[in-house]
Amino acid sequence: MEARVPAGITGVSRPPTMRDVAMEVGVSQSTVSRVLSGAPSRVPIAEETRRRVIEVAERLNYRPNPLARGLRGARTMLIGAIVRDITDPFFAGAIEVLSSEAMKLGYNLVLGHAHTRAEEAIALRAILETRHCDALVVLGDVSDQPSLISDLHDATVPVVALWQGSRLQGVHSVNVDNRVGTNAVLDHLRTLGHHAIAYIGETRLRDLKEREDAFVDYFGRTGIAIPDGYVRHARNNHGGGGEALSALLALPNPPTAVVASTDVLAIGALHTAHRSGLAVPDDLSITGFDDIAMAGFTVPALTTVRMPIYEMVGAALGIVIEDLETLADRPSAGEARLMLKPSLVIRDSTGSPRIETRQ
Amino acid sequence: MEARVPAGITGVSRPPTMRDVAMEVGVSQSTVSRVLSGAPSRVPIAEETRRRVIEVAERLNYRPNPLARGLRGARTMLIGAIVRDITDPFFAGAIEVLSSEAMKLGYNLVLGHAHTRAEEAIALRAILETRHCDALVVLGDVSDQPSLISDLHDATVPVVALWQGSRLQGVHSVNVDNRVGTNAVLDHLRTLGHHAIAYIGETRLRDLKEREDAFVDYFGRTGIAIPDGYVRHARNNHGGGGEALSALLALPNPPTAVVASTDVLAIGALHTAHRSGLAVPDDLSITGFDDIAMAGFTVPALTTVRMPIYEMVGAALGIVIEDLETLADRPSAGEARLMLKPSLVIRDSTGSPRIETRQ
DNA sequence: CTGAAAGCGCTAACAC
DNA sequence: GTGTTAGCGCTTTCAG
Fold first, then answer.
1. Is the peptide bond before A308 cis (omega within 30 degrees of 0)?
2. Which of A61, A229, A337, B202 is least crowded, fewest Cβ atoms below 10 Å from its Cβ?
3. Is the C-alpha dihedral spanning A44, A45, A51, A55 positive or negative?
4. For residue range A20-50, what is the model confidence (pLDDT) as tens digits?
5. Residue A232 in 3-state DSSP?
């Protein structure tokens, strides 16, 4: 307490520099650097000198300036994350995982989100131009931001894209096998006895479009025609899911099961089903995709597809950091492409249809 | 396409510097700086020179190095956000707002989260020591991280704390009036005819503790004794809310209404109520606090307290940026302390108790 | 073992 | 109008 640096006395408190420490100790600045730079310095330092430097540094509350460090070519230990929409609980969860995992590796996250408003597309460049990031992780389909994509290409740091869906040429990518997930859901519903199965999803996001395609193909394979209006497009948020379900319920032959392409949509649908006086799963089965934290706590708990987030994020980080380390060697090591498998999580939002259709 | 920089040819592609541009154009590096630094340079530049510099910079795909810029004392346009728990949907939403609002002002966010695991407390220092942030925003009560608190104190940049609850000496703060919110909820429930009202909340987080205190005081004022076991402590997550409700329902005289200190807890409670076969609000009323995005889409939609997030985040940003701008003048401008008022949002999770207690 | 000196990429006086 | 020259705080040769 008494030992606090008298910040008020020196006027504007400029953070202490190495020089300050050096002068105080009475050694040269480079000696201080050697002691403090953390590196196991190949050069031996007198134990006495080292002790005094550390002591003074502590007293002055010295903190190394990472900008200066970075200028010298050192890592900034910053990873840039570009998210298409942080509002989306799924991405919020992904960011959380990314953040924790990155921290375990000693990195911090710089957040840049690609919210679809045009003005912000500009702001987005900032995180790229601001290339003090050692690497970039892109979460979600940002293909609606052409300028971003092109920026990505000539980024001077490793880039990895997660849940991108589309193949972004020239950057690493880690995706989930949407086909496997969708098939698992549909097999489950068919086993329960459902025939009238509808789909809700945003079609402009390639990752989600893959789920839609898988849905359509599933029925194509089995030779069953999908009734008109059974594939509904919706904005990927709670409200979108609700509206889509309303439209579905207004159909002359409403479905007995609805496959939502994300948990967020499913939650919206769950809400609207309740509003419409429909019991889930007795009157209507609803499934999600992602298994966000909420999914186990909806009313009723949501049957969904578990996204291997940890595995995917870990893999992405691994790819990009490995790239970082072997960067000096080869100009470009080619793109890594990973595709992980999701798994079905059966909870309480699915059941056999009450009105048995002809078996 | 053809105009792409031949990255592969030059071997390891070092990002182009101002010098590279200067040499290419045949002018001095400082001229390039003047043209490119964006500032409305008081010094006039020949239109022809400016044109050529810009042209070459573009062709070389030049990006200014913010580290070097920052070293010169310029802003890094980075705001550090320290969140106590990004997993919490409330904070995820807050981060989103913070991120958008910051971007509107030209700032990017650096994320550091204060997850309670001890090891990460160290990682947290990084974001501080890495003080290339122009300012720091702390979200949520981090008082369980003493080292962080002390670091915060001798931070050389402006710091503002949101939803801190406790008074962090020496840093600006923006809080919500938890008393007003809690009172509004209780008035609402009393008006509906509830007498047996219980509370669920995490007690270690001061922000939430304020809500608990307000709850207790409310009954203290009206001279009504709170039955034993009616104030339940729980971890602030979905599961915690569910467990707390189970305990409440096991009481000899279970409550007819439950006030959860957060929406997350309320959602957990909603889920468990449903599991227990209780209809909300007919058998049990449940209220939340925060009005997270989900709150309007639970089953049934949640009656809660709307948190003025935009206003709070905007205010916090304003305080810290204003501080930044007038920083050279006065050593410390004193701490700003803001307290905003929340408002009640009545939805469908509250109603009159079915079993009328004596009026 | 330690000091002196040269930059990293950029901005901002200060010259011409 | 444009070039020269100092540094910002640090790491890293290279000399002692």
1. no
2. A337
3. negative
4. 999 899 998 889 988 887 666 566 788 888 8
5. strand
Q: A241-283, pLDDT tens digit by residue?
A: 999 999 999 999 999 999 999 999 999 999 999 999 999 999 9
Q: Evaluate whether A181 touches A157 at the Cβ level (below 8 Å).
A: no
Q: Helices B118-129 and B146-153, interaxial angle, to 10°?
A: 10
Question: What's this model's pTM, rounded to 2 decimal places?
Answer: 0.86
Output A81 or A236, whichever has higher pLDDT: A236
Structure tokens at A259: 């496959």
Would you give the DSSP letter of residue A277?
Answer: T
Interface of A with B in 153-192 (CB under 8 A): 154, 156
- Nucleotide of closest approach to A73 (CA, C1'): C8
Between B181 and B32, where is the model more confident?
A: B181
Asked whether the beta carbons of B233 and B174 are under 8 A apart, the reply is no
Planar angle of CA A266, A268, A270, nearest 5 degrees: 70
Q: Which residues pair with A56 in a beta bridge?
A: none
Question: Which residue of A78, A154, A293 is in closest CB contact with B238?
Answer: A293
Protein residue minimizing CA–C1' distance to C5: A30
Cα–Cα dist B159/B137, whole Å: 6
CB contact under 8 A, B111 and A112: no
What's the CA B103/C1' D6 distance, rounded, in angstroms? 34
Closest chain A C-alpha to B152 CA, distance in angstroms: 12
Distance from CA of B5 to the nearest CA of A (A): 9
List protein-proximal bases of chain C (any atom < 7 A from a CB): 1-14
